Structures are given as structure tokens and as C-alpha cells.
TrEMBL record:
It comes from Anabas testudineus. It is found in: Membrane. The keyword Ion transport does not apply. It is a multi-pass membrane protein. The keyword Membrane applies. InterPro entries: MFS_trans_sf, TMEM180. This is Transmembrane protein 180. The chain crosses the membrane at residues 22-53, 102-122, 134-159, 171-193, 199-222, 267-287, 307-324, 336-354, 360-382, 403-428, 454-474. GO terms for cellular component: membrane. Keywords: Membrane, Transmembrane, Transmembrane helix.
């Protein structure tokens, strides 16, 4: 039975009509429902990750100490909430947690509201104001908490909508189209607010995006389905026997399940590789605007050109993945991810040899790096889905630990989102960035030259070294040919 048949046969009459309408126009209803959360989340996630560091450093004038404190709290919260929410969503008997679509349905409005916290100052901040540090802490933790709750449910849907490789590739394809549309929010935000110079326009745009994002994710919450939803309903109908087994879940059970996941070698290799990918993503998302403004003169790239450059860094990854669909089917994700590491390291080495004075090459390198890193990261759901399938078969589970696998992965990789800005900002401040960010190009020329030199070496050496480490971590990964094993993918 196909995914479409599964969905239509179990749907309510009104939803059946909608699904038939979509199928008539060649749109897969399961994929569309899934990617509406991708569309909504990409609208707000990209704006948040791209602008929040620059906003708090250069507009709210947060001190380095408060910035680091906020990032440490964020890092701890990041490490705790993913496995906690993953365990809750896989084992809870409360429908809003146990059913993926309901987690998205109820979490979406709070997710969009949490996105808005950062963009509205709680008062007129003075440089080093303690309240700006508290503001950043609350904004990061609230946004990440709701992001985790909603996107863990969506990640679990990726593995549970279908186990067929072809259907998962289709979800990737639809997701890239949705991300392509959603990522344009950075481009339009930059153009309408002149890269945040018109802050009122920036705030108005974020409110609009929050509303649109919420509506998109609500569509997933209403229309999406998991293959295991019926099994959850059946287990509820069994009564006291299942209630007894469910009541045995405890911290010891959580520890056992996590140990089973953590001792799987392919999972360990993936997490190590993914940690550095998340670090690189945070590095480029948080500092590309700062590096560009400092290293490329205004008469070389004007504000509009920079807005297009920033937008391309978020839009083109989806175009790249969409153009490589045949390669995904033919070569598989393993080889494509490995190849991206070689390309990233090679480009960084070439840029280092060329030098910082080649401004157009530097702009090209920053943009292409953002594209390649984000494009390869977009494929990471495929190896995680295969790891979930392997865990399901190895331990003969009645339903997969989808949210727990994704949550445990995030436990070790998400701290990189905090480590990247903390480490980079610390290095920059050692060379006078905090003192000079208000003085601009009127600072002492020798000190400014030293700072720019450090920025350039960071731009080149960080991706080059990290890509080399990722190659070493990824090469031993054993699930390399799942795209060729058709017998494994039989939907029940």
C-alpha cells in the first residue's frame, strides 16, 4: 500500500477531499503536510540565527560577560531539553506529546511568539545594561525550547511517514522547495529594513513572518499523519495491561534507552560529524554579516548587493539540493556529504592562498560556504532515519524511538550553537572588536588591520580545519548504500 493510500484510507471525509484534490494536481498530501512546518520554521529560524548576534552586540550593546553568560545558560538548556522532549514525545500517553501532529499543532503558536521576544527591547538599553543580558537569555531559551518541541515532532514524522527510501527522498525534495521559499525571509528582511538600519521596519517584518509561520505549521498539525499513530490508539484501547507497562517508564528506562542509542557506532560517528557541522552553521550564520561589513569595503559591495549575498546564502542551498536529486538516488547521501567536506576544505585553502584583498572572491567564498554547509546539513535527516530503522530492527521495538534519536543527537550537537559565537567573539575581543565596533573604520589603523587579519584567518582556517575533522569522522560510517536496498523499504 502506498503512502497516499494509507493516508486517504484513514482520513476524515473533509480531509479525503483535500487529499484527492492535491493528488489530482500531482502534489503528495503527506509530503505537503510535512513540509509546511519546514516552510514556517525556516522563515523564522533563518532570521533569528542570522540577526540575533548582530542585534545584541551592535544595537543593544550587550557586554561580553553578559553575552557569554546567556550563551552558557542557553547551552545547558539546549543540552537538557532535546533528550527530555524526545523521551516525552516517544513515551508520553498525553496526546499533545505522543502524537506528532498534535505536538506541532499546539506548539506552533508558542514557537512563533517566542521568535518575537528578541526583536523588542524591554527598555532603551545603555551599553553593558544587565537587562539586555537577561533579555538575550530569555529569548534564546524560549525560542530554542519551542523550536525543539515542534521540530523534534517533525523530525520524528520524517522517519515515521514512510520507511521507503524513495518517499524519504521525496520529503527531502519537498522540504528544499519549502526551505527555498522560507529562506527568502532573510533576503526580504534585509532589503526592507536595509540590513536592520530601519529597525521599525525590521520589527514589523518579524511580526508578519511570525504570523505566516504559525499558519504554515498549523497546517501540519491539522493534516499530517504518522504510520504509528494507529498503533498508539490501539495501545490506548488495550486498557490496564498497557497502562501497567507504560507506568514502568522512569529514569532507569530513559537511561537504558539512551544507552542503547549511544552505543550504536554509526550514531556516534554521525553525532561527531554533525557537531562540527552545527558549529560551522552557527559560525557563518552569526558572523557572516559582521565579517562582510568589516572585511569588504562599502564601495566594493553596497547595501543592496550585501542583502542579495546574505539572501543567496539561505536560498541557494535549497536550489543546490533540488538540482542534486538524481545524484541522491544514484550515489546516496553518504558520498554526497563526504564530497561536500572535501569541497569546503579545498575552497578555504584556496581563499587563504589568495588573501584578504580579493574582495569579490571573499564575498563569493562566504556565500558559497554558507550554501554548501547548509545544503549538506539538509541531508542529515536521511542518515538519522536509517539509524532509527536500524535501532527499530535491532531491538525489535513495536514503534521507533524517532524523537529520542533526534533528541539525543541534539543533546551533543546543539551546544555547538553556543560554543561557536562564544569562542569567535572571545577571539575577536582579544584583538579589540568590542572597543572598535562603535568606532567603525575610524579606529586606529594598525589595530584595525590586526582585527581584520584575525577575521580573515578565522574565515579560512575554521572551515578548513573542521572539514578535515569531519572527513575523518564520516569515512567509517557504515550505512552507505541504503538508497540501493529496496527490500528494506516495505511500508506496512
Amino acid at each position: 500500500m502506498t503512502v497516499e493510500d494509507n493516508l486517504v484510507s484513514g482520513a476524515l471525509p473533509g480531509r479525503m477531499n483535500l487529499m484527492r484534490f492535491l493528488i489530482y494536481f500531482g502534489i503528495n498530501p503527506a509530503a505537503l503536510a510535512y513540509v509546511m512546518t519546514t516552510l514556517g520554521s525556516s522563515m523564522i529560524n533563518n532570521i533569528f540565527s542570522f540577526y540575533y548576534v548582530n542585534l545584541f552586540l551592535n544595537k543593544y550593546k550587550i557586554s561580553e560577560g553578559a553575552f557569554h553568560q546567556s550563551q552558557v545558560v542557553y547551552m545547558v538548556w539546549n543540552a537538557v531539553n532535546d533528550p527530555l522532549f524526545g523521551y516525552l514525545q516517544d513515551n508520553s500517553r498525553v496526546p499533545c506529546c505522543s502524537q506528532r501532529r498534535l505536538s506541532i499543532l499546539y506548539g506552533a503558536p508558542l514557537y512563533s511568539l517566542a521568535f518575537l521576544i528578541a526583536w523588542f527591547p524591554w527598555r532603551s538599553y545603555t551599553p553593558g545594561d544587565w537587562l539586555s543580558g537577561l533579555h538575550l537569555m530569555v529569548a534564546l531559551c524560549a525560542f530554542d525550547g519551542m523550536l525543539t518541541f515542534v521540530l523534534l515532532a517533525q523530525c520524528a514524522l520524517f522517519a515515521e511517514i514512510s520507511s521507503h527510501h524513495h518517499n524519504r527522498i521525496r520529503l527531502i525534495k519537498y522540504s528544499q522547495v519549502a526551505s527555498l521559499i522560507g529562506s527568502s525571509s532573510v533576503l526580504f528582511c534585509g532589503m526592507l529594513s536595509r540590513n536592520m538600519e530601519d529597525f521599525s521596519a525590521f520589527q514589523a517584518f518579524t511580526v508578519l513572518i511570525a504570523v505566516l509561520s504559525c499558519c504554515c505549521m498549523l497546517y501540519t498539525g491539522i493534516h499530517s499523519e504518522s504510520r504509528f499513530d494507529n498503533k498508539v490508539s490501539e495501545s490506548d484501547a488495550l486498557g490496564s495491561v498497557d497502562q501497567t507497562s507504560q507506568s514502568t517508564f522512569s529514569f532507569s528506562t530513559l537511561r537504558t534507552l539512551m544507552w542503547q542509542i549511544l552505543t550504536y557506532r554509526d550514531f556516534q560517528l554521525f553525532v561527531l560529524m554533525n557537531f562540527f557541522q552545527v558549529f560551522l552553521l552557527a559560525f557563518f550564520n552569526n558572523f557572516t554579516m559582521i565579517f562582510t561589513e568589516r572585511l569588504i569595503p562599502p564601495d566594493t559591495l553596497n547595501s543592496l548587493a550585501k542583502s542579495i549575498m546574505y539572501g543567496a546564502g539561505f536560498i541557494c542551498p535549497q536550489l543546490l539540493v533540488l538540482s542534486c536529486q538524481s545524484l541522491l538516488h544514484g550515489l546516496g547521501y553518504y558520498r554526497m556529504i563526504l564530497f561536500s567536506f572535501y569541497v569546503e576544505a579545498g575552497m578555504a585553502a584556496i581563499m587563504l592562498v589568495l588573501g584578504a584583498q580579493h574582495y569579490y572572491f571573499l564575498a563569493f567564498f562566504l556565500t558559497i560556504s554558507m550554501i554548501i554547509i547548509q545544503a549538506s546539513f539538509s541531508l542529515f535527516g536521511l542518515p538519522l532515519a536509517d539509524i532509527i530503522d536500524a535501532d527499530l530492527q535491532k531491538y525489535k521495538r513495536s514503534s521507533p524511538l524517532s524523537a529520542m534519536v533526534f533528541g539525543t543527537n541534539a543533546l551533543f550537537t546543539k551546544p555547538a550553537q553556543s560554543l561557536a559565537p562564544m569562542m569567535v567573539l572571545n577571539i575577536l575581543n582579544q584583538f579589540g572588536y568590542e572597543k572598535m565596533k562603535d568606532e567603525g573604520r575610524n579606529s586606529d589603523p594598525s589595530t584595525l588591520e590586526s582585527l581584520h587579519s584575525v577575521m580573515f584567518y578565522l574565515v579560512c582556517l575554521v572551515p578548513m580545519i573542521i572539514a578535515a575533522v569531519q572527513v575523518l569522522a564520516w569515512r567509517p560510517f557504515s550505512i552507505r548504500n541504503s538508497h540501493t536496498v529496496d527490500s528494506k523499504y516495505i511500508d506496512g
